[in-house]
Amino acid sequence: MKIERPIIVSFVLLVLIASLYRLLPGRPLGFAPQIAMALFSGSIIKNKRYSFLLPILSMLLSDVLYEVLFQFKISPIVGFYSGQVENYLLFASVTLIGFLIQKQNWLQIFAGALAGATFYFLVSNCLVWMAGGLALNNLPYAKTWDGLISCYTAAIPFYQGSLYATVFFNVVLFGGYALFTKNAVQPQASA
Q1: What's the CATH fold of domain 5-190?
Q2: Where are the domains of the chain?
Q3: Residue 140 in 3-state DSSP?
Q4: For a tag site, which of 98, 115, 178, 188 has the least CB within 10 Å?
Q5: In angstroms, rounded to a whole number, what is the distance separating the alpha carbons of residues 71 and 112?
Q6: What is the pLDDT of residues 96-131, one digit of tens each?
Q7: pTM for the model
Q8: 107-141 burial, b for 16+ CB within 10 Å, e for fewer?
């Protein structure tokens, strides 16, 4: 399929919407579209080098927006933070899981959502624990098995929100893409 202007515009809008969505106050912990975007781009974008761009660009744009809001004292959330590079690398890694998803296979899409959210949860929280992240008592997690389990336990609400968001946004992204290709691309090919 030739990349046409409507497809490019759709991806730009997707990046903007996903970036702005992260800024919504009161959304559930971990409920964000970036894991689904990484899976979607890994599955849909044929040029695999470009497939990493969509989730990374979305995160970068939203982080820039967070930083601007923080600098103007509109938001307490900083845009640039320690561990940011690792976070971006994790989203790039989730894109690799998307390579395994066939875009018309809903079982694979659901399995990808489960695998992507779980991978992100396990690796990101292990990195938090290894880097000396702070527990609810504002003390670093102990460098023991119990400290690691405490870190994972504290992050379960984020994992639940992430899993729900990834399933929801996978339905939106893959479903929207299926509807778009069925209704917009195929009729043009037959004309």
Answers
A1: Arp2/3 complex 21 kDa subunit ARPC3 (1.10.1760)
A2: 5-190
A3: strand
A4: 188
A5: 37
A6: 999 999 888 999 999 999 999 999 999 999 999 999
A7: 0.86
A8: ebbbebbebbbebbbeebbebbbeeebebeeeeeb
